[in-house]
UniProtKB/TrEMBL annotation:
Residues 22-267 form the Nucleoside phosphorylase domain. Belongs to the PNP/MTAP phosphorylase family. It is an enzyme of class 2 (transferase). This is Purine nucleoside phosphorylase. The gene is punA. CDD domains: PNP-EcPNPII_like. InterPro entries: Nucleoside_phosphorylase_d, Nucleoside_phosphorylase_sf, Pur_Nuc_Pase_Ino/Guo-sp, Purine_phosphorylase. One of its GO terms (molecular function) is purine-nucleoside phosphorylase activity. It comes from the Bacteria. Coiled coil: none annotated.
């Protein structure tokens, strides 16, 4: 993996990716942040050595480098998931590349379902903690100690200082936010009524199919993280309707401007 990371990094440096300060991962339906970036360089995933390919139709599959809020940023416009047939090493490889390029902070977004029924469609939830239900770890491979401590501490995977800043920004901009626990499952099927009940019992406030592996690797590399969920549906097992993917994408798009404001204002302070 070290050889691959070096080759990928050299390719991106040669394409103009020059010492980004902040890495950003954009989730389902949350790609319009790109419109606010002064783009310096961009490369499709299928042209980057050793990168996986995005296979989800609403994930663009592009790595973008540029200026946002006065800082150099590198943005994943489209991420990778276990449900696409990739393994944990594949889906977290871009985080290792962003770290190698020099990022000092990582911001992550996702679309998720609200398990906590006090939370509603269109709410933004700051992830304060998570539950890994994906059945594995991106650190479970030979040679992991070459990249960091094998037994990575996860007592506080989300940076308290960045969370506090986002809470202040939200209050100042009159943006309603929630804070809670995100459970990450494999997917791609949505949950059954019994599974939603289980998730509530074990303490999840929201559920999705991403983010946790990326955050584990960032913590392994000592990169401070902030993650937010855009809540696109309400997962009430007693009143469960069939999933409407088009509606989920629509709600993500409607809420996205608030997330962009939070990220842009936070970046100014980093």
């Amino acid at each position: 993996m070290l050889k691959h990371i070096t080759e990928t990094t050299e390719y991106l440096v040669n394409k103009g990716f020059d010492k980004p300060e902040i890495g950003i991962v954009l989730g389902t339906g949350l790609g319009k942040l790109i419109d606010d970036i002064e783009i310096i360089a961009e490369v499709h995933y299928n042209n980057i050595p050793h990168f996986p390919l995005a296979t989800v139709e609403f994930h663009t599959g592009k790595l973008v480098y540029g200026m946002l809020a006065g800082k150099k940023v590198i943005v994943m416009q489209g991420r990778f998931h276990l449900y696409e047939g990739y393994d944990f090493i594949d889906i977290t490889y871009p985080i290792r590349i962003m770290h190698k390029l020099g990022i000092k902070n990582l911001l992550v977004s996702n679309a998720a379902g609200a398990i906590n029924l006090d939370y509603k469609k269109g709410d933004i939830m700051i992830i304060d903690d998570h539950i890994n239900l994906q059945g594995g770890s991106p650190l479970a491979f030979k040679g992991v100690s070459q990249f960091g401590e094998r037994f990575a501490d996860m007592s506080a995977p989300y940076d308290a200082e960045m969370i506090a800043k986002v809470e202040e920004i939200a209050a100042d901009k009159n943006i309603k936010i929630q804070k809670g626990v995100y459970a990450s499952v494999v997917g791609p099927q949505l949950e059954t009524r019994a599974e939603y009940r289980m998730l509530k019992i074990i303490g999840a406030d929201a559920v999705g199919m991403s983010t946790v592996p990326e955050v584990i690797v960032a913590n392994h590399l000592n990169v401070p993280c902030l993650a937010v969920s855009v809540l696109t549906d309400e997962c009430d097992p007693e009143n469960l309707a069939p999933v409407n993917i088009a509606e989920i994408i629509e709600i993500a798009g409607q809420t996205e401007p608030k997330m962009i404001t939070l990220f842009s204002e936070l970046i100014k302070t980093l």
